[in-house]
Here is the input.
Amino acid sequence: MTTYDVLFTIAGTISVAAALLAVSTKHLVHSALWLIVSLASLSGCYLVLGAEFVALVQLLVYVGAIVVLVLFALMLTRAPIGRSAEHDTSRVQRAAALVVGAATAALLASVLISAFGNDKKRVNGGGTHLLAARLFGSWVWPFEVLSALLLVALVAALALARLPIGPRGDADGVPR
Amino acid sequence: MIHPVLPMILVGLLFGIGLYGVLARRNAILVLIGVELMLAAAGLLFVTVGALTSDTLRAGQVMTIFVITIAAAEISVALGVILAVFRARGNIDLTEAGESE
Amino acid sequence: MMLGDGRFDSSTLALDFALQPSHLVVLLPAAIPVLVILLTRRSAAAFVVSATLSFLGLAAAIALLAQQARGGAVASPGTIGQLPVGPGFSIPLHLQVDRLSVLVAVAVGLVSWAVQLFTRWYLYSDPRYRQFAATVGLFTAAMQLVVLSGDLLLTLIGWELMGWCSYLLIGHESERSKARRAAYKAFLVTRIADTPLVIGLAILALGARSTDLGVVVTHWTHAAAHHHTALAAALLCLICAVAGKSAQVPFQDWLPDAMEGPTPASALIHAATMVAAGTVVLGKLVALLELSDPARLVLTIVASVSMVGAGVLAFLQHDLKRLLAWSTVSQVALMLLGLAVVTPRAGADLGIAHLLSHAMFKALLFLMMGWLSVLVAGTTVERLSGVLSKYPGCRRMVGIGLLALAGVPPFAGFVSKDLIIDQAARGGIDGDTSARIAFAALACVVLLTAAYSMRMWLILIHRTGAQRVQALEVVEDSYAVQEVGIVDMLVGLPPVDQHGRPIDGAVAQPAPIAEVEEEDDLLVHQQPGGGARFGLQLLALLSVVGGLLIFSPMLDVDWKHPNGWLIGAGLLLMGAVALLVRMMSVGTVYGDAAARVPVFVRAAASRGFDVDRIYVAVVRPVVGLAHVVTRLEGRLDAGVQRLPEASAALARRTARLHTHRPTTGLLAVSVGLVAVGLMGVILW
Here is the structure.
């Protein structure tokens, strides 16, 4: 066990535990909050792996933006506060989902482990300086395309929000 | 120095948990949370592989940043859809999504 | 103009121009259908077009003959250029002009022209005359293409085109079911026989890596020693196709049935074109035929059997047009024998010589038969009996045709037939098996030909008892000249010829003058036009003097050493047979010598010894198979039609299983993905 191993184990355990709670809690809002914990500790894992910029972005974008967006959506869809059994599917399907999830996890982990072996490896993190050079050097075109994608997503979200739909009878007065 | 086993197990677990979340939840937003977990697993895998191999182009980290960006775009559109569905149907229960009104 | 710039050499008649007479020979008849169908709406206009163009086609053929005689003909004029099929194989698509093909082209052009002239009279009131004339033109073009082609592909094209045109011509009167059946039969039988032709031509062409006729012959001449079996197989395939087209055993039965077509079509098909096409094609490849003994033997046997069998059948036919048809089978077999008995040095000249003479006299006979059948409205023995006594105007030309057919010197038929017999006799003495078989068959067929020619002649000139009495009355009337006064007789009595017989049958009984005039009008109508009669007379003339052709340098035959004993014996036997037939005919009702033969034999012969039933028996299993296939197909069809319903039911049943919940489907998809992933990991 190296220091890296220890730190990674701690962060990873927290992340997994929070993720488990996020997908199993009966409180809607709790679910979003546990997601914050899980993703934040995942950014700790990134730090251990030497990707400090990615960890920062993870915190900023996921924790700062996305989860807040999710919370907003929960509010806007009048999510019930408190415990509710309404959020889960039937027991049979949950059991099946459990089996499938476990099988997928085992499958992925076993495949990846068998692919990379268990030899101790040096963490080749590099610095943010080099990452910046690569991001705006080799990867600049995909980066620009991504910005266009973000713009399109923005417009699409706006269009969806203004979509003239409503329940039958046009109850909420949205103009047709 | 790090054992590659640990990140790989974490990737598998996060992905499996995310898949469970997608399959076991009825609320569309909770399904989205499962999807976020699966995306996070993918990003972790990118970073891990980038850190453990000689990655001169920094592709692992760059790809993770891209994945996070795409996830942001995806979730904004998805939430827009969910809101539209909510306005149209009054709930966002996926088990009733296929029923005719 | 052309003389000036040296494009025309007046001494050799060579023409330095892209369009050679050989092209015109093919193109002018081919233009007939195009122009007739596109431009003309009335029969008269169609006649003008087709008669003009076929005359020009004949003129082109004669010009080609003149060129060839002077040595100025282009030996292999190209057509549309070589087909681009890549290296290693060449399809030059060129024509080939040699002395034999030129002669045949002239004969085909002449017969076609005569037929076009005659058709106008024969089908005067037929609303579909235009189509008929157009088909005749296309048919002629196809035959000329086969005759002049120097490329196996062009030969095949012309050959198939002829098959199709023969179907159209035979089935011209398509409102009659018998004509339709005959057309189908001709088409199917020749079609089946054509299948080996494609195979045979493919073998020849692939071996030589070219469809050029000259290259093919050269290559196989050298390769014959090593690839004897392949050559024999290819030639046997060709012989099979030739047997189909030329109506030889076992495909012979379509040709008599083809008599259902209008008589000009029969004349065209049977005289110069379709049935002779086999001889032409084999004649082009005769150099290869000489190298393959099995092929020669098969050809000899097929031709001998056809020749003798058809001769017997011809003698027994009740319908005189079918008699001519069977005689065509017999005569075409004779041509093929002329090819089969060739010695290694000689070319196809013997067969082609007989083809030429046969084209002349058989076209003449068929057209005369058409004329006579119009006069008496039928072609059976009962109808035609005594027709020449009633209409003596036709007597000369029918007589010439029959004498040429029987092979009486000095008519054309005698010359060409005698040359073949001579050749067969010589080959037989040299120990050639094929030639011996051929000689035996020829000896039989000479007598048979004489017999059926004599029988036909006796039927045609037969005079019934009533006619004899009438003739007697006329003669007795002529004794009364002194009593009546010569002026009265000239005015009041029917015209008679120098023998005291009524002329043209105009007065079967003493009739008022007005009626005589009416019948005269009728007779004018019952006579072909001047052009057609001129064509007939030309054919008759050529039937008489056509034998002189062997003395020309165009035909390379050994005429200097005729076997006098053979000719003498043959003529004596023919005379004896003719006498025998005459004796048999005495006392029969219609002057029909075959009436002495038992009825059931004659009936069977009229049906071609029921070969048709054998055809049907061959076809029946095929039809049965087709029925089975049809039934299976029907089942399949019903099944397919029930398929949407079944799948809809299945869909409804599965729809009941469907929960309409996305997550369930997602779960199923995930399970599947995991299963696939597991399998992939385990099986890796």
About this structure: Chain C touches chain B at residues 659-663, 666-667, 670 (CB under 8 Å). Chain C has 29 helices and two strands. The mean pLDDT of chain C is 82.
